[in-house]
Structures are given as C-alpha cells and as structure tokens.
C-alpha cells in the first residue's frame, strides 16, 4: 500500500510541478522582484543595487509626468469604457433583429479585433496623417485640415476613436450572445401588456443581460488601463506627453531612461490601482446582479 | 406592418454603410500598398494607376518576411501547445486530488489574473537575463507558458470539475494508469474548453508586441508585429512600403479568422463568460 501512495504522489508531482515551476519563474519571481526593486535604486546595468527605503514612492509623489500619465489614463479608461460598451451594445441590438445580412455584418464589425493593436495603430497613423489631410484639402473642412496627432485634445480623441473602431466588435459579440439568451416569449408577454420598445429594453432585456455587462465593463476597464500598443504606434505619448498611458510611461522610464527601480515602484502602484478598481467593479456589479 | 418592414430595410442600409465604414481603413491599407511613393502622397483614396507589385518584393526582402512569419508561427504554436499541456495536466490533478496543497497552488495561480503584465515586465528582463531566456525564441516561449498559465488553469479547473469521475474510474479498473487515463479519456473530453483556450491565447500571442519588444532584440528573432514597426519609426515615411508591410502582416490573421470564424467567435464568447 505505501508504494501505491508513493506512486500517486509522484504522479501528482509529475503533473503539477511543470505548472508550478514555470509560474514561479515567470510570474511569481518577477512580481516579488518588482516589489523589492521598488525599495531599491538601480539603473539596470551597474553591479551595485542600493536600498533606498521609500525614496522611489516619495519621488513619485512629486513627479508631474507621472500625474499627467495617471490623469490621461483615467480619462481614457472612463471615456473608452463607456463608448465601447454603448457602441458594442447598439451594434448587438441592431444585429439581433432579423436582418438579412446579419452574419456578414457581424464579421465586418468583428474583423478589426483579430488584428493586433500595434498594426491597427500604424494603419491609423497613416489614415490620420495622410487620408485626413487629403479629405481636408478636398473639402476644406477645418476639422480635417489640422494634424490631429500634434494637438493634445485631438490626439486624445484619435486614440478613443481608434479604440472604438478596434474593439467594439468584441464587446458586440459578447452582448449578442447574451441577447440571444433573452427568451422571445418574455418580450411578447411584455408587449401584450402594453410595454413599448424602450420599456421592454429597460425592464426585460437590460436586467437579463446584466452578467454580460459586468464582464464587458471589466474587460473594458482592464484593457483601457493596460493600453500600450495604440499609444506607442499612434502618438508615442505625444504631443508633450499628453497621451502617455501608464503602461507606456513605465516602459519609457525603464527601457529608455534606465530608471529600472523607479519604474518598478510605479509598476507596483499601477498593480494596486488596477487590482482595486477591477475587484471593486466586479463585486459591486455581481451584487446588483443578484438583487435584480 | 408595412412601416415595420420599411424600418427594417432602413436599419439594414444604415448597418451596411456602417460596416463599409468599418472596413474602409483596411481598404486604404491595401490599396496604398500597391502605389508608388508619390502616388500615395497625391491620392490616398483612389485605386493605384499602375499596380506596384514590387513594393511587396522589396518588403519581403527588407524585413525577411519568410523568416519573421516562421518565427511568429513557431512562437505562437509552441507557446499555445505548451500552455494547453502544462495547464490541463496541472488542473487535472488539482481537481482530482483536492486538499490543502492543491487549494493553495490553485489560489496562488488564480491570484495572478489580477497582475498586469506591465508590473512584471521590468524585473522580467532581469530574471530572463539571469536564466538565459533573453533574446531567444525558446526563452519567449517559456515566458508565454508562464503568462498564459493562470487563465488556462482557471478555465480547465472549472471545466474538469463538471466532468464525471466515473469514466476515469472505469478506465482505471480496466488497467489504465493515471497518464493513460489523462491522455485517452480526459483530453478528448476537454476538447471544447481546449479550443476556447487555444483561440484566446493564439490571438493574444500572435498579435503581442510589448513582450517581444523588450525580450527579442536580434534581427533573426523578429516577429511580424516587431518587423512591421520598422516602417513607422520617427525618421521614416515610406508609406507605400509601410502599407505593403501591414497588408502582408494582416493577411495571415484575416485568412485564419475567415476560415475559423465560427470557432473564434464561440471561443471568445465562452472564454469571456467564464473568465
């Protein structure tokens, strides 16, 4: 009997150890390292690593560029979270009616999502700097005669526009799956009781698709916070650092300015903020799902 | 009733126009890849006067397209295969042998779902250097195993819990070992969740830019997203070559999507709902 026990344990180790080993090496070790780095001073190259206590966190407190990046990211997250969900839900509602071209339309709206966001960023760099200039010349509309990427407000809305174009189809697909789960007879019953389209949507459809909404808000929040590729490809954080997302800010600090440990402290703060916001969002929305 | 039908036609028309607007940037990318440099500057919207196939052969050689395509394929396939194997094996034993250790391992791996990559990337470069994983195809594949694992273990764990034990027990009585049961009984049962995980992770790894950007530096290790960035640096504006490069970069993934559309949309929906 002890040999059977031993054999079972060996098999357990054989199956679980690769996952534990890879996880420890690639996720756990760098994570602990990030926390340790945040209390140290090191440029990434020299052989000496000094302990500096809370210096990095204190420095962050007075770092205008960090605040600016934080403010940009928050604004970007709020605006895109609302808009991708509104556009995604609107597209899903339209496609949930018996349109003839429904399947082709779904493919068209979803297609941009499968393309990587760095490539999307380059495509739109061309469109905004070349095509928009062309349209401006042809129509004389002042809107298109400006270089969007060199004006702070326009650069911000360019990023929002491209984000919506890139990912609305994704949110649409998730909403569409939820809408298809809304029983037809419930809607019929509501309409017999005299509910108009708007009222049906508010009192029948909306409560039933709440779980999809929880997921989509979570995904939009977390994707928005982690945004890097579009900022990198489209604006490089410019003009004057006004569109530097937190992810890009940390990247630039660490890999172009060699502020390894300072960037790690910012990365730890970034983790705490993102984890708190997403956990609060999910628990609040899960609770309201149960109530309704 | 008549009014309703008119409304439907109108909605359909609006949606078609909107869809064309959605596809328009891809059209722009495509046509400008076939123009000369001067023609791109004078007209971006029109079709090319003379189709310039040589843009594609120039890009093909300049970025060594066959090489970067191969790198992207190798990295994506081996990363995803490794994630599927490591995660399903671990989840299998974690579910079937519950206890304090299994619980602790599962919770630890699960908690990593809230850690953004950006928090790990700075020290990762140091860890990768210490372990000889930097600037190597094998190295980045191991990293993807690590980053893909939490989501995959979570999805497999949830799925295996719903698989009845009796099948495995029957096979064990027939003389199969645990490894045999895993390969012959369990893996076939896991197919739906395996395809969901494979699709989610393939799209992510194929399109990923930030990780390759910080850990792959030499030219023979470039992936498609890295290589296409060459034409969009600060001091270059060879738009015609850039658009040809982007066209070549997006064709494989669009073809893959159109062939696998049903599975991709199903995979993304169920992945999101369970995640």
From TrEMBL, chain A:
SUPFAM superfamilies: MetI-like (SSF161098). It is found in: Cell membrane. Pfam families: BPD_transp_1. Keywords: Cell membrane, Membrane, Transmembrane, Transmembrane helix, Transport. InterPro entries: ABC_transporter_permease, MetI-like, MetI-like_sf. Coiled coil: none annotated. It is a multi-pass membrane protein. Gene3D superfamilies: MetI-like. One of its GO terms (biological process) is transmembrane transport. One of its GO terms (cellular component) is plasma membrane. Residues 70-281 form the ABC transmembrane type-1 domain. Its main location: membrane. The chain crosses the membrane at residues 12-36, 76-95, 107-127, 154-178, 259-280. Belongs to the binding-protein-dependent transport system permease family. This is Sugar ABC transporter permease. It comes from Paenibacillus nanensis. The lineage of its organism: Bacteria, Bacillati, Bacillota, Bacilli, Bacillales.
From TrEMBL, chain B:
Its main location: membrane. It is found in: Cell membrane. Residues 69-260 form the ABC transmembrane type-1 domain. Belongs to the binding-protein-dependent transport system permease family. This is Carbohydrate ABC transporter permease. PROSITE patterns: ABC_TM1. InterPro entries: MetI-like, MetI-like_sf. GO terms for biological process: transmembrane transport. Keywords: Cell membrane, Membrane, Transmembrane, Transmembrane helix, Transport. The keyword Coiled coil does not apply. It comes from Paenibacillus nanensis. It is a multi-pass membrane protein. The chain crosses the membrane at residues 9-28, 68-92, 104-125, 137-160, 181-206, 239-260. Pfam families: BPD_transp_1. GO terms for cellular component: plasma membrane.
């Amino acid at each position: 009997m002890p040999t059977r026990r031993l054999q079972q344990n060996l098999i357990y180790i054989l199956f679980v150890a690769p996952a534990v080993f890879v996880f420890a090496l690639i996720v756990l070790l760098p994570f602990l390292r990030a926390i340790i780095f945040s209390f140290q001073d090191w440029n990434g190259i020299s052989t000496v690593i000094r302990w500096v206590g809370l210096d990095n966190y204190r420095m962050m407190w007075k770092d205008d560029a960090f605040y600016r990046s934080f403010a940009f990211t928050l604004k970007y997250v709020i605006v895109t979270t609302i808009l991708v969900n509104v556009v995604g839900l609107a597209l899903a509602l339209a496609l949930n009616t018996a349109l003839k071209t429904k399947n082709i339309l779904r493919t068209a709206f979803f297609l941009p999502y499968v393309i990587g966001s760095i490539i999307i960023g380059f495509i739109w760099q061309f469109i905004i700097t070349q095509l928009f200039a062309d349209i401006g010349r042809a129509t004389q509309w002042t809107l298109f005669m400006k270089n969007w990427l060199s004006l702070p407000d326009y650069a911000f809305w360019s990023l929002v526009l491209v984000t919506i174009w890139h990912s609305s189809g994704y949110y649409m697909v998730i909403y569409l799956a939820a809408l298809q789960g809304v029983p037809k007879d419930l809607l019929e019953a509501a309409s017999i009781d005299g509910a108009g389209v708007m009222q049906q949507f508010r009192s029948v459809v909306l409560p039933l698709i709440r779980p999809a909404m929880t997921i989509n808000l979570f995904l939009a929040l977390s994707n928005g916070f982690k945004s890097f590729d579009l900022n990198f490809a489209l604006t490089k954080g410019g003009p004057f650092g006004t569109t530097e997302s937190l992810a890009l800010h940390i990247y630039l600090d660490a890999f172009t300015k060699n502020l390894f440990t300072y960037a790690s402290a910012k990365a730890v703060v970034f983790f705490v903020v993102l984890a708190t916001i997403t956990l609060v969002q999910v628990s609040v929305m899960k609770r309201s799902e149960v109530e309704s | 009733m008549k009014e309703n039908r008119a409304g439907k036609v109108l909605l359909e028309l609006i949606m078609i126009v909107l869809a064309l607007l959605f596809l328009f940037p891809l059209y722009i990318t495509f046509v400008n890849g076939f123009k000369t440099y001067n023609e791109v500057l004078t007209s971006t919207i029109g079709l090319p006067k003379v189709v310039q196939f040589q843009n594609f052969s120039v890009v093909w050689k300049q970025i060594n397209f066959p090489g970067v395509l191969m790198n992207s394929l190798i990295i994506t396939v081996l990363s995803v295969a490794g994630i599927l194997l490591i995660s399903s094996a671990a989840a299998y034993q974690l579910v079937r042998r519950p206890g304090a250790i299994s619980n602790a391992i599962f919770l630890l791996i699960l908690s990593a779902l809230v850690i953004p990559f950006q928090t790990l990337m700075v020290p990762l470069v140091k860890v990768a250097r210490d372990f000889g994983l930097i600037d190597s195809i094998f190295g980045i594949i191991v990293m993807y195993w690590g980053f893909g694992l939490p989501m995959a273990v979570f999805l497999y764990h949830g799925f295996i819990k719903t698989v009845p034990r009796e099948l495995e027990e029957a096979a064990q009585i027939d003389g199969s070992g645990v490894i045999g049961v895993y390969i012959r009984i369990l893996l076939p049962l896991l197919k739906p969740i395996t395809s969901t995980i494979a699709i989610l992770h393939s799209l992510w790894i194929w399109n990923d830019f930030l990780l390759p950007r910080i850990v792959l530096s030499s030219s023979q290790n470039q992936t498609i997203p890295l290589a296409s960035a060459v034409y969009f640096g600060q001091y270059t504006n060879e738009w015609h070559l850039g658009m040809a490069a982007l066209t070549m970069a997006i064709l494989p993934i669009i073809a893959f999507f159109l062939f696998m559309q049903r599975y991709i949309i199903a995979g993304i929906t169920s992945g999101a709902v369970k995640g």
